[in-house]
Amino acid sequence: MLEYPTDHGRIAISEEVVAGIAGAALADCPGVAGTVPRGWRQGLAGLLGEDRGRGVEVTVADDQAIDVTVRIVVTYGVPIQEVARTVMRRVGEAVRRAVGEQRVRVHVHVAGVRVPAGGAPGGGGTGAARAGAPRAGAGVPEAPGEGVATRPPAPGTAAPGGAHPADPSEPGDTGG
Known about the structure:
The protein has about 180 residues and is an alpha+beta fold. It has helices at about 15-25, 40-45, 80-100; strands at about 1-5, 10-15, 30-35, 55-60, 65-75, 105-115, 145-150. It has one domain (about 1-150): Cation efflux protein, cytoplasmic domain (Alpha-Beta Plaits, 2-Layer Sandwich).
């Protein structure tokens, strides 16, 4: 709980309020396809439609510094580091502006990649979806056939569709 003493009493701001502010800022970040709930409580809140702070965890240190951790799913094909930096900047600015606290740190965990329904360009397919990963995120409706892929096929193995995403050659092509 963030607490600020004043001449007239005390102001207290709960972590859930800060998570909602961060979640609202997160929803406007390009390249973010959704969020991943941290535990069963956030998963249940998402099912009940109370998902503004879903995928966001807030902790407050003894010195009132705020740590915000977000767990996101990015859209396939976007530069992941750029998306993460944008999330850090926008979430940090929104929390600083709303709460008035300058000591805000934002930590981004990229938990997956949302691959479009047609699969990855180059025949990469949708890859393996992570068990237990949500199929829709932070208010972003999912199109049929979309999934959350967490890693590409292992080196030397063929992805669905025949070609390995990192290998532009066609199956059976000897390169010569």
